[in-house]
Amino acid sequence: MFRNFVTIAFLALTATAAQADTTADRIQQAAQNACQVERAAGSLPASHYDAIYRQCVWRLSHQAMDRVQEARAKAARKVAGN
Description:
- By secondary structure, the chain is mostly helical.
- It has one domain.
- It is built from two helices and no strands.
């Protein structure tokens, strides 16, 4: 029984790790697309507007990753029977 649980957990973690890169990339791309409004092309000072854009991307991507991780943790607890 324990061996089956360890095997299933290992396979789940392996699959999750492979998907994590793809998920992170997709979230990053979505955040960049959503924050294009914040990017003012040709506006000066460029460092000011670039900082606003980078902060927007950082905030949105971290919020989305937090939600994804919470959902994965909830699913893992559900599978574990808690």
